[in-house]
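Changelog-adjacent note: as of this version, every example in the card shows the full chain rather than a window. The one below runs 121 residues end to end.
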Amino acid sequence: MTLFGAENAWEETEQGFAAWYAAYPRKRERADALRAYRAAIRAGRTAEQLGQARDAYVAELRASGTEAAFIVYPAGFLRRKLDDYLHVEAPVKKVKAGPVCRDHPDERCFYSPGSGWIHAR
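Full-length structure tokens:
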């Protein structure tokens, strides 16, 4: 009997990593790569996201003709380059709009309490 299905989750992570690692172009430091993979999963990444990021990196390597010696080790990719290849949209920040110039509503005009409207052209 397992506590909260931990054994099943462990097996899923192991299987996901095995598939991810098998498709990665440079096979080095497997144990370190497994630790980095687990950390990425714990940080909220899905196995699908990790696979998509790896595939995007591999496609870039092929397109640029990168030599094998310059391919990042798997753990290094997961720790340092993963976010560069994840295609996740960043949350949109809402910005409070300021006053709008009546004379030039489409231009970038700034209001200064001491000087009034400053028209940027």
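Structural remarks: Helices lie at 6-23, 30-42, 47-64, 74-85.
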